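Table S2 (continued). Query chain:
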Amino acid sequence: MIPGQKENHPTFGKSFGFALQGLRYAFRTERNIKIMAALFVFALILAFFLRCDASEWGIIFVGAGVVFGAELFNTAIETIVDLVSPEYHTLAGHAKDISAAAVYALSFLVGVAGIIVFITAAFRLFAS
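Corresponding output:
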């Protein structure tokens, strides 16, 4: 056993399996993550046709990762809030609203970055 590791701590493989289970749950239950995945595929296709360079591809992937991560955290927060507060409570509603607002703020800013990337790539492609 690794020093400092708990005996009942799951192996790396099991932890990875739990993460995949959470991802499957989010895709099965959350409409927004499906929309984000579709927009990501669209962004990949657009980046391919606009011949984006390596840094532009990096911005696209980092942006998508930030948005997907935020949506997964939002889903986790909403799930926990629903567990501990099954009846409506004002503070529980605020927690869920703020979590959703974080996703929308990040999505907006990543969308702006994407527009900048795609406009720049389009100008470069059509100017040559």
